[in-house]
Design goal:
Layout (H helix, E strand, L loop, with lengths): L29 H16 L14 H19 L4 H11 L7 H18 L3 H11 L1
Helix pairs in contact: 1-4, 2-3, 2-4, 4-5
Length: 133
């Protein structure tokens, strides 16, 4: 628009290419955990505002990422894990997000992997994880 001057915005684009084309979940959580961590580090270093999450179909993959990220943020802030609430919160805003039990379980796996790798709760969670094996 003519006459309106605004500061330019910075857009950082992260793309996750390891998701299977058949809409199932990835076999491993490694790559997506690294992406979640990379995005979080970027958010901490900058003040560029919210993160926009998109996917090809606009639902399943987005839902898994958002729910897992929400659960991870809750662990960091409150030292509590509640994947059910994270998934429920995401689905309250868009019911098509997290459509299958496989996606729901993958949210658990992502959150656990992230916490074991990056959280100060590592020792307690490693013990809990081993006792369930």
């Amino acid at each position: 628009m003519a006459g309106i001057k605004a500061e330019p915005k910075v857009v950082q684009f992260f793309e996750f290419l390891a998701w299977p084309y058949d809409y199932k979940v990835p076999i491993s959580t490694n790559a997506l955990v690294e992406l979640i961590h990379m995005v979080e580090r970027w958010r901490q270093r900058t003040s560029y505002g919210p993160v926009l999450v998109i996917s090809g179909n606009g639902k399943s993959r987005v839902g898994v990422y958002i729910a897992a990220n929400f659960a991870i943020e809750q662990v960091v802030a409150h030292e509590e894990i509640d994947i059910f609430n994270a998934a429920k919160t995401v689905r309250r805003h868009r019911s098509a997000l997290i459509e299958t039990i496989m996606e729901y379980k993958y949210c658990y796996d992502l959150t656990l992997h992230y916490i074991i790798k990056y959280s100060k709760l590592q020792p307690a969670l490693k013990m809990l994880h081993r006792s369930k094996l």
